[in-house]
TrEMBL record:
UniProt-recorded name of the protein: INLR1 protein
GO cellular component, one term: plasma membrane
Segments forming domain Fibronectin type-III: 8-103
GO MF terms, alphabetically ordered: cytokine receptor activity
InterPro entries in the record: FN3_dom (IPR003961), FN3_sf (IPR036116), Ig-like_fold (IPR013783), Type-II_Cytokine-TF_Rcpt (IPR050650)
Gene transcribed to yield this protein: Ifnlr1
Length: 108
């Protein structure tokens, strides 16, 4: 009881730029300053299998670099983000699908 449902994040956009894949968003209306965000992604060849991104769990910033989390180098992917504050969370908001092509510059 007393858990506020946060409004969804806004302007959720998946950008593909310079071989990087970055999800950006804006805070929803009335967010507390210490809200955090969690991001997951899925690829079009494995729909409804949302993959976790360890470095984008409970983050304070409003972007997530997915590049090194993606396993397949040539596939359409999309991401989703939700806001979390204490025990309250927002609904997930999905991005559009984006073609992903990487030259594999990710270091372990």
């Amino acid at each position: 009881s007393g858990h506020v449902q946060l409004l969804p994040p806004r302007n959720v956009t998946l950008l593909s730029k310079d071989f990087a894949m970055i999800l950006t968003w804006a805070p929803g209306e009335g967010y507390p300053p210490d809200v955090t965000y969690t991001v997951r992604y899925e690829s079009q060849d494995r729909l409804d299998k949302w993959m976790k991104i360890p470095h984008c769990k409970n983050i304070p910033r409003s972007f997530c670099n997915l590049t090194c989390a993606l396993s397949t180098f040539y596939v359409k992917v999309r991401a989703r983000v939700k806001a979390v504050w204490g025990r309250s969370q927002s609904p997930w908001v999905k991005s559009q699908f984006k073609d992903y092509y990487s030259d594999g510059e990710c270091l372990p």
